[in-house]
Amino acid sequence: MKKINVGIIGCGVIAPAHIKSYQMLPDVEVISCCDLIREKAEKRAAEFGIKKIFTSYKEMLADKELDAVSICTDHESHTLLAVECLEAGKHVICEKSLASSKENLEKMLDAEKNHPELVFSGVFQHRFDSGYLYAKELVNNGVLGEILTADLTVMCLRTNEYYNADAWRGTWAKEGGALLINQAIHFIDMISWIMGGVKSVSAEYTNLAHKGIIECEDTASAAVVYKNGALGTISATSASPLSWQPTMTFNGTKGSLSIRDNKLFSLQLSDREQEEAIRQKFAEYTEEKCVSKSYYGSGHPRQLNDFIEAIRSGIPLRVPAHSAAHAPSIVLSIYDSCRSGKRVAVEH
Ligand SMILES: NC(=O)c1ccc[n+]([C@@H]2O[C@H](COP(=O)([O-])OP(=O)(O)OC[C@H]3O[C@@H](n4cnc5c(N)ncnc54)[C@H](O)[C@@H]3O)[C@@H](O)[C@H]2O)c1
Fold first, then answer.
1. For 170-210, how does the pLDDT look when each residue is reduced to its tens digit (9 = 90+)?
2. 295 pLDDT band (50/70/90 cuts)?
3. Counting C-beta atoms within 10 Å of the first and last residue's C-beta, which end of the chain has fewer, N or C?
4. CA 287, CA 148: separation in Å to the nearest integer?
5. In CATH, which of 3.30.70.260, 3.40.190.10, 3.10.180.10, 3.40.50.720 is domain 4-126+300-318?
6. In CATH terms, is domain 127-287+325-345 a member of 3.40.50.300?
7. If you average pLDDT over residues 54-68, what whole number do you get?
8. Running DSSP on this structure, what letter comes out for residue 318?
9. What is the 345 CA–ligand 1 centroid distance (Å)?
């Protein structure tokens, strides 16, 4: 088996989830890490035994030994970094949000088209969570009948301290937004993935509890039209006392299913026997082996394994870049809708 050498760009909060995930895989080595702030790269290198340290990603990319890169930086920098990594012949996995503006999203999609010889994935690790996968199977196999409405609520908490810790957070220029593009995006991706995509949105956003702290939104709501014709809503806030509570509800002609944080929350089917069997199956799901009982759960090891397998054996990615582009496209359309006061079509 060919050894795959990986580099990390951005050695902040999420980098360890990538490094630990790679270090679980056979014949994969994280050989380099890069951060604009040398001490941050040095800290990660010392923690995880990484040999090469860089403060310039260009120097890191010049390394012929390097096969693949994880991009773990602020949203605005994702586009330039991903494009340059692909141009340097490296496979890429980029953290969410793939881009922070529609213009940059186009550049990411062009880069993917221009480099069919390379693997280019976007992180949405919850696409590997067993409860969500089972919910997708049930919805897609028609167990709920025709889906009429699909609704998402995301209650979470991001404190003033969280926003003040890093200059890029909560800014239009570097994060591209706040609550929607950073926290709610995971579940906007999930509900749209399960439903087969969003066609258009009509939305509002506001800042209710972080005034003077962030320039972007901490609360938002949207009326959604899915590509399959169903309707739905998104309602989200990062000023809730509930630290992390994402809930998705699918209402169909044969019943209703609610999933909260990867677990069954409620189920009602016209067929009561089938309802009981499904309840049992949800109960059987246990969280599989994960890096640690960390805040980010067990999705990163599974997604990075998927990325490595795609490089090694050419299997199709679960989250190719063009698929990871849909949630940012929805989020950026929500912002456009609020600014224009009009319904906005979701392009990608
Ligand atoms: N999938 C998840 O659950 C999850 C969780 C947290 C963060 N994230 C994502 O991970 C990314 C990073 O978030 P974070 O919380 O780790 O941020 P962070 O601020 O803690 O770390 C980002 C690091 O990138 C470095 N950096 C920025 N531009 C660079 C460049 N050009 N070259 C080298 N280094 C550069 C910064 O110096 C900083 O150390 C974001 O896209 C975020 O949305 C994903």
1. 999 999 999 999 999 999 999 999 999 999 999 999 999 99
2. low
3. N
4. 31
5. 3.40.50.720
6. no
7. 98
8. S
9. 29
Mutation to probe ligand 1, out of 40, 74, 93 (largest number of atoms < 8 A from CB) = 74
* Å from CA of 166 to ligand 1 middle: 10
What does the DSSP assignment read for 51-106?
-EEES-HHHHHT-TT--EEEE-S-GGGHHHHHHHHHHTT-EEEEPSPS-SSHHHHH
| pLDDT (tens digit per residue) in 85-133 | 999 999 999 999 999 999 999 999 999 999 999 999 999 999 999 999 9
Closest ligand 1 atom, residue 78 Cα: 41
Query: What average pLDDT does the structure give for the chain?
Result: 95
pLDDT of residue 286: 57
- Sorted by where each begins, the domain ranges of the chain are 4-126+300-318, 127-287+325-345
Angle at 51 between CA 99 and CA 167, to 5 degrees: 35
